[in-house]
Amino acid sequence: MAPPAIAEAGPDTRRVVPMSVMKLSDDAADLPEKFVKSLGERPTIAHNDYCKEIPVISLKGIESESERARIVAEVGYACAEWGIFQIVDHGVPAELMKSMMENTLGFFKLPLDEKVKYATMPGGFPVGYASGSHRADDDILDWRELMVHRCLPKAVRENDISIWPEKPETYRKTLVEYSDTMGDLVTSLLGLISESLGLPTSYIKNAVGGDDAEQKILFNYYPQCPQPDMTLGLRSHTDYGTITVLQQDDVGGLQAYKEDRDKWVTVEPIPGALVINLGDQIQILSNAKYCSVEHQAVVNSNQTRLSLVTFANPSSTSQMGPAPELLSEENPAKYRSYTMKEYLPICFAKKTKKHYDALVI
């Protein structure tokens, strides 16, 4: 099936919406070839075959000394053994989580010609709406539609907010509140992770740029798929930044790779919970004590799925590398130091399967 004609633009300005996955979901009886993954990339575990072992940590009592000690210990275990965990009693208002979900769904349900007004442009930072991929040159696409925003530092947000969707009417206002709330939560989480490594509470926050650290928020819409066993909603990867906070609906699909078992596991949707996964910078800063978890999203033929993803990334000028306080003769540095703006170019140049392996000494 040919992709729908959605934009009248020349090759240099063509927006990155190679085909509407939502339209394909409605019209296609078979999976279009552009979405068919190679045999080794196809899902092996069902979207609703949930793993009950992934840690779920309550942040209740985080301000009390005794409870904080428990929380720090549980976070440390989860970071070392899994690289992914869920949190409850996290303080993010349920009404805000619900409102952001509703506004996000409202955007994706808009007519295609309305969404395309906010589509990603080739070149530069991939912000805006895309379908299948935010890259115009992707050979194989993912079964999703997406929307990306740069939200922090606030100067970046103030520059970008004029190109955020105006529909639904409460979209912009809700996203600003959601961004600020997630920023506060990330600060708390980085404090817990710092303490679990035996470092001062503010150590990681300061290391990644303090108030200049970057926040990117991604919304994913995964339509029903005619042949979910042959594709992915989002291909396997690690996140290049610090940590990621994910809010998902009640439809399963997020999977993490448990390396010591050579097995993919599906993260169970828990009402009100948020999923936390570590990015490459925590693995490197911890000198591989903690792991940047490989993850992917699978789809299904019966239900759509929605996820809201907050990426907390270092500022581009942050000097990254293993924390000197964690190094010794018995534990020498496993990675070299670099500035954050050098990280992805180094990784792409060396073409390692996992980005952080490009920095191994």
From TrEMBL:
Entry protein name: Flavonoid synthase I
Q: Which protein family is it in?
A: Belongs to the iron/ascorbate-dependent oxidoreductase family.
Q: Domain of life here?
A: Eukaryota
One MF annotation (Gene Ontology) recorded for this entry: metal ion binding
Alphabetical list of InterPro entries matching this protein: DIOX_N, IPNS-like_FE2OG_OXY, IPNS-like_sf, Oxoglu/Fe-dep_dioxygenase_dom, Plant_2OG-oxidoreductases
> Cross-referenced PROSITE patterns, in alphabetical order?
FE2OG_OXY (PS51471)
Locate the Fe2OG dioxygenase domain: which residues?
A: 212-314
The record's keywords, sorted A to Z, are: Iron, Metal-binding, Oxidoreductase
